[in-house]
Amino acid sequence: MILDKFSLEGKVAIVTGSNTGLGQGISLGLAEAGAAVAGVYRNDAGETEAMITKSGGRFFGIKADLKSIAPVNDIIDNTVDKYGRIDILVNNAGIIRREDSINFTEKDWDEVMDTNLKTVFFLCQAAARQFIKQGEGGKIINIASMLSFQGGIRVPSYTSSKSGIMGLTRLLACEWAKDKINVNAIAPGYMETNNTINLRNDPVRSKELLGRIPADRWGQPSDVAGPAVFLASSAADYVNGYTLAVDGGWLAR
Ligand code: NAD
């Protein structure tokens, strides 16, 4: 039955940035579809844990700072110690710095590129090594952005990192498809999370952006849950290297 292919029963997923926003929405979706979630968090994953366990799901928190690649191997090892295997990796954690490019600092460049691109690559690599060891393939979902497709303004390191995510997703799919590893990305549109507080609080930018979204609303964390479940499931076994926009029609405009 086709719906069985969407089930994540018996699967184990790592989700970075699981404590808030889109990472929380994705964690809840994967757990509801049956996956045990190893949620990587920086400060406190209590809310996500409570929401998942309340509805009978399994959640295990791993505290890590993804600004550097130092915690990468521990994240994989702790998940395998706890749940015995890994089937899904969602690279969701990310940061943004806003400043005119003419004044942009090296610090704001490095912090964003390290968190949003370098750590993502090394997490992909570590998860793929584990998938290959297990011999049954795996699913990687990277969180991209509208700025994987467009330029944006005042976010040079963010646009570079998210454009890099789309390219990296394609490259890894090409290298690892033979190992039954799918590497896809989700490009969220303008979503109501911490990441967009400044935009939503700016009456001019907020009105401009909302006026351009065909769905006529900001996205919610729950809007990315279904696409994430799909890409994490065997229903997406032949989808590889693709960046799926979840944007209320923004790119179609
Ligand atoms: P958010 O700020 O609520 O979430 C970001 C998450 O990343 C948080 O859980 C945070 O703890 C984690 N994180 C950041 N730096 C970290 C570090 N050094 N170590 C560990 N964890 C770290 O915002 P969000 O919108 O939910 O962002 C999630 C992802 O979605 C990001 O990659 C973001 O770039 C992307 N995105 C968001 C939007 C949007 O409109 N909100 C649009 C496109 C892409």
Topology of helices and strands:
Layout: E1 12-16, H1 21-32, E2 36-41, H2 46-54, E3 58-63, H3 72-83, E4 88-91, H4 106-134, E5 138-143, H5 156-176, E6 181-188, H6 197-201, H7 203-212, H8 225-232, E7 243-246
Parallel strand pairs: 1-2, 1-4, 2-3, 4-5, 5-6, 6-7
How is this structure best described in words?
Keywords: NAD, Oxidoreductase. Its EC number is 1.1.1.127. There is one protein chain. With about 250 residues, this protein is α/β, with parallel strands linked by helices. It has one domain (about 1-190, about 220-245): NAD(P)-binding Rossmann-like Domain (Rossmann fold, 3-Layer(aba) Sandwich). The chain has eight helices and seven strands. The chain has helices at about 20-30, 45-55, 70-85, 105-135, 155-175, 195-200, 205-210, 225-230, and strands at about 10-15, 35-40, 60-65, 90, 140-145, 180-190, 245. A seven-stranded parallel beta sheet has the order 3-2-1-4-5-6-7, with helices on both faces. Helix 1 (about 20-30) crosses helix 8 and helix 4 packs parallel to helix 5 (about 155-175). The chain is globular, with a radius of gyration of 17 Å. Nicotinamide-adenine-dinucleotide binds near residues 17, 93, 94 and 195.
Q: What descriptors fit this protein?
A:
253 residues; Rossmann fold; seven-stranded parallel β-sheet; 8 helices; 42% helix; 15% strand; binds nicotinamide-adenine-dinucleotide; NAD; 2-dehydro-3-deoxy-D-gluconate 5-dehydrogenase; 2-deoxy-D-gluc_3_DH; Sc_DH/Rdtase_CS; SDR_fam
